[in-house]
Amino acid sequence: MTADAWTAVIVEDDPDVRDLIDIVLTQSGFQTFLAEDGPSGVEAVRRHDPLITTLDVNMPGMDGFAVAKRLREFSNTYLIMITALADEIDVVQGFEAGADDYLVKPFRPRELRARADSMLRRPRERVEQPVALAPAPQAVPARDASSWAAQAARDLQEQSMAPLQASQPAPRHAAPAPLVEPSPVSPAPVEAAAADGSWVSFNGLGLNNETRSVTVGGAGVELTRTEFDLLASLLSTGRRVRSKADLVLTMRGQQYVTSYFVNEADKRSVEVHIANLRRKIGDDSANPRYIETVRGVGYRLAEAI
After folding, report:
1. CA 3 centroid distance within chain
2. Cα 11 from Cα 40, distance rounded (Å)
3. How far is the C-alpha of 207 from the C-alpha of 236, rounded, in Å?
4. pLDDT tens for residues 48-84?
5. Do 120 and 164 touch, CB atoms closer than 8 A?
6. Of 172, 177, 150, 148, residue with least CA distance to 162
7. Which residues contact 35 (CB under 8 A, 6 or more apart)?
8. What is the DSSP string of the chain?
9. What distance in Å separates the CA atoms of residue 141 and residue 129, rounded to the nearest whole number?
10. pLDDT digit string (tens) for 161-189?
11. Cβ contacts of residue 264 below 8 Å, gap of 6+?
């Protein structure tokens, strides 16, 4: 399996949830590989080098947090944790273990598809697009009629069959329609950060969007994709306050806010990434040089020195 193939690994011990995720990702053009526990999930990621991996947390033996840490030793797969654990400590632990996104059960199939689509807009050495239509999903074996995942899978199958009967089916990879009227995010031009060619400098910090590199006092700083995107976004908008929901969109590469797709777990993930970013660039939240916290709202660039 080549490293740039459109593949996904699903690590989930609940068969109903596993089938549901399989249907969503298959309909989005992925070739999927299923794993029922942590060790087999690690081996599947190592063998297939997937573009996206979904990972349950509550699994017997090796839990999802341990699996995520193991995966980050050798893989940069986009990692979505899908779990019923919604407490702040669980969300924080998930991102610290290496997750790129965190989705709480029960979830709607459209939300999983939207989150997967958003990850594909982030820079990565994966440029091919899925070109072959995925085969029609097979019937989900009847298990527990009360399972939310089994019911969602059945609904999704019924919806997927409707375009096949129409004369002109809708595009398979179209973005889901927003549930509320979207409000465009219009970044204001930055005044505090000075541009010099490809570089943007601010209070001794330099950022190059073309090479995706960052320096502090002339020394290079290694940032994750998400940390770089958040820093670049804050530098681009200067002293304008950015809400946590707004920064969630930056992490996803989206431009519109919908109340359905931004939840409290998403906002807490921004806090975790900003804290990690501050630590790496040597910033102090109590006396900020680069990123200032606006309590109850979000973040903005600090005063220029």
Report:
1. 20
2. 8
3. 11
4. 999 999 999 888 888 888 999 999 999 989 999 888 8
5. no
6. 172
7. 9, 10, 11, 12, 41, 43, 44
8. --TTS-EEEEE-S-HHHHHHHHHHHHHTT-EEEEESSHHHHHHHHHHH--SEEEE-S--SSS-HHHHHHHHTTT---EEEEEES--SHHHHHHHHHHT-SEEEESS--HHHHHHHHHHHTTS--S------SPPPPPPPPPP--TT-HHHHHHHHHHHHHHHHHHSSSPPPTTPPPPPSS--EE--PPPPSSSEEETTEEEETTEEEETTTTEEEETTEEE---HHHHHHHHHHHHHTTS-EEHHHHHHHHHT--EE-TTT--HHHHHHHHHHHHHHHHHHT--SSS-SSEEEETTTEEEE----
9. 31
10. 554 444 444 443 333 333 333 333 333 34
11. none
| Tokens standing for residue 256 | 């519109």
Identify the pLDDT of residue 202. Answer: 94
Tokens of 100: 């790129």
The structure tokens listed for 211 are 């090479």
